[in-house]
## 1
Amino acid sequence: MDFLLLSQAASEVTAGTPEMFSDLAPPLQVAIMLGALSFAVAMLVSVTAFTRIIIVLSFVRRALSTQEIPPNQVMLGLSLFLTLFVMAPTFDKIHKNAVIPLMEAQANQEEGEKLEFGYLDGWKIASEELKTFMMANTRTSDLELFFELSETPPPSQRIDTPMKVAVPAFIISELKTAFIMGFCIYIPFLLIDLVISTILMALGMMMMPPVVVSTPCKLLLFVLVDGWQLISKALVASFA
C-alpha cells in the first residue's frame, strides 16, 4: 500500500510538469518511458530486499524437486509483495520526507511562490533512506572490499558511504546471505533423498529413481511443518 502511494505521488509530480517532454517526438517519449521502466527494475533488484527473497524461494523450489511448481509468475509475485512488506518502513519515510514535501513545493510554485524543495532534494532524501536500509544489511567485509577496489578511504560513519560502493557491496552481501539460507534449507531435503536412496538400495530396487519416492515425502514434510509460513517468516526476520 505504501509503495502504491509512493508510485501515485511520483506520477502526480511528473504529471505536473508535462512541458519537460512535450517538445520531444513520440518515439523519444516512448524510449524515455521504457528507459525509466528498465531503471525501476534495476533499482528493485539492486537496492531492495528482492534479490535475497527470490533466490531463497528458488532454492526452496529446487530442494523440493518440483521442477516448475510453483510457476515462475507465482514466485515473482510472492517475492515482489514480500519485498514491499519488508521495504514498507523505508517507503513510508521516503513518502513522508521526500514525496509529500516535493508535491507541496510544486503546488506552492504554481501559486507563484519560489520552489524551496526541488527534485534533487527529494532524490537526496530518498537515496539516504535506501542507503540506510542497505547499510543495515551489508557486511563490513563487503564494504571494505569495494572501498579497497575503488581506492576510496572509508568514511567515519557507514551512512556516508557513497552509492558507487554501497550498491555493489549490498548486492554481494545479499547473494551471500541468500546462499547461506538456501544451504540451510537444502539440508533436511537432502537427508530425505539419502534415506530414500538407502532404503531403495536395501530393497534391491536400484532401477527406480529415488526422486519418484522422495518428492512426495518432501512435499508431505513441507506441508506438515507449514513450510511457506516458515520460509516467509525467516525471510522477513533476516532483514535488519
## 2
Amino acid sequence: MSTSKADWLVKSLAGVAVLFGLLTVLSGGRPLFGGEAARLAAGAIVPFVLWFNFVAGFAYVACGLGLWQRRRWSVPLAVFIAAATGLVFAAFGVHAWSGGAYETRTVGAMALRTLLWAGIAATAHRVLLQRI
C-alpha cells in the first residue's frame, strides 16, 4: 500500500473513531446523567452495557487521536477496544438469553461497535505495525 493511501486510510479511521467516540459519550451520558426523563426515553437499559459504552467512548476518542498521529500505542488500544466490546456483547447475549430486559436496538448497536472496532484494529495493525 502506498504511503499516501495508507495515510488517507489511517486518517479516515481516526476521524471515524473520534466522531464515533464523541457520539457514544453523548448518547451514553444522556441516560446516565440526564435525569429521569432521559432514562425513561432510553427504554430497557442494560446498565453494564451502558456504562461500558460510555467509558469506551473516551477510549475511542483517545485511540482515534493516536491513529491520527500514527502512534504505535493506538494499535493495541484498538485491539483492546475490539476485544472488550466483543466480551461485553457476549455478556449482553447471556443477559438477553437468560430473560433480562433489553432494547432490540442494543443488539444492532453492539454488533456495529464490535465489527467497527475489529475492522479498525485489523486495519491499524496492518498499516501502522506491518507497514504494508
